[in-house]
Amino acid sequence: MFRMQKPLPPEFSEAGDSFLIESIKRSKEILGESLFILGHHYQRDDIIQFADARGDSLALSKLAAAQTAAKYIVFCGVHFMAEAADILTSDDQIVILPDLNAGCSMADMANIDQVSLCWQDLEAIVDIKNVVPITYINSAANLKAFVGRYGGSVCTSSNAQSVVKWALNKSENSKIIFFPDQHLGRNTAYDLGFNENDMVVWDPHMELGGNDKQELADAKFILWKGHCSIHQRFSTSNIADFRKQYPNGQVIVHPECSHDVVSEADLAGSTDYIIKTITAAPTGAIFGVGTEIHLVNRLATEHPDKTIVSLDPLVCPCATMFRIDLKHLAWILNMLTKGTVTNQIKVEKDIQEFAKLALDRMLEIV
Ligand code: SF4
Predict the structure, then answer these.
(1) pLDDT of residue 68
(2) Domain CATH for 282
(3) 253: domain range?
(4) What is the pLDDT of residues 106-145, one digit of tens each?
(5) Which residues surround ligand 1 with Cβ inside 6 Å?
(6) DSSP 3-state assignment of 63?
(7) How far apart are CA 233 and CA 229, in angstroms?
(8) Are residues 327 and 291 in the same domain?
(9) Cβ-count burial of 7 within 10 angstroms (0-12 exposed, 13-18 middle, 19+ buried)?
(10) Are the beta carbons of 109 and 135 closer than 8 angstroms?
(11) Which of 39, 149, 185, 319 fits a 20 to 30 Å CA distance from 194?
(12) Domain total in the chain
């Protein structure tokens, strides 16, 4: 989804780092407890240094909700995360995204019109009461509202298995449509003992998603054709290269990686799982990590007694996360000190109600 960030005033767009750092420190001091800055693990270090808390998207949203003294929540992450924070925080808290162009390419691979059309097609083929929609938290608020309205749930990479099990247990004929990340959906289905014959992929740009009616009627899982451009880059040849260089090393990857990569890895799990596993490993441990490069580099810096390298030496950072920089953070905070709120992320009331239902359902399941 394209959003337009207006150009920053030259005072910030042309400023050097030392001016920006001083400006952020000054604004933080002025705003005091009314301000809480959240930093996603994939943010660059110069932003993370100013975060009052860091975490993955759900952990940060929960933290935001717990910060009742903070009127302004500045979310250094991407758009869907700021939306989730707005849904979970109280009405008098204001959530701000420093750069409106910080979206998520995966979240943008499924939009409400495409998902509604898919649902209409499925209604004509299967008993729609058996279809449980599950959306990954990396999705727009109106998709979370869609799954809330139709009896489904949100999931994260930490709890996808529990949420899918819950959906399968709703009835013996339960069928799941999982969006927008096909890889997390597929990896979760495999983990639960299903195989490729149980799954079809829904390509929103093709008639019936590129399937025939019988395939859709037979499938237990309909996986939306979306992916994370960062995690999909990791390949089995990256793993082979790492093993050649570090025969005693372990490969740990995020479940947004493709199934063949997850199958060949020693360990797979959410961002939180990756951090905890590496932190708990003994001195001398060696890890080849398949996730966003800023997190991998930070882990390497924080654990100098271990060898921590990216599985793909050419991996690029998440371009949209990278949009949040010192210039935007300094500008947005300076505006707040003047009493002006810019870049507020506000989810409409009716969307908020059903999206919260889907988020609450997830929190009840896990
Ligand atoms: S790393 Fe992937 S899923 Fe995460 S924000 Fe970037 S594009 Fe989206």
Answers:
(1) 87
(2) 3.40.50.10800
(3) 231-310
(4) 999 999 999 999 999 999 999 999 999 999 999 999 999 9
(5) 42, 78, 104-106, 138, 228-230, 292, 318, 320-321
(6) helix
(7) 6
(8) no
(9) exposed
(10) no
(11) 149
(12) 3
Give which of 107, 106, 153 is closest to 133, Cα–Cα: 153
Ligand 1: distance of its center to the CA of 42 in Å? 9
Please provide the size of the chain in residues. 366
CA of 169 to the centre of ligand 1 (A): 30
Tell me what the mean pLDDT of segment 213-222 comes to.
Answer: 98
Residue-level pLDDT at 16:
97
43 in a structural domain? yes
Burial of 283 (0-12, 13-18, 19+ CB in 10 A): exposed
Taking 70 as the threshold, does the pLDDT of residue 3 lie above it?
A: no
Pick the last residue of a domain from 228, 252, 277. Answer: 228
Please identify, among 190, 206, 228, the residue that sits at the C-terminal boundary of a domain.
228
- Rounded to the nearest angstrom, the distance between the alpha carbon of 57 and the centre of ligand 1 is 11
213, pLDDT greater than 90: yes
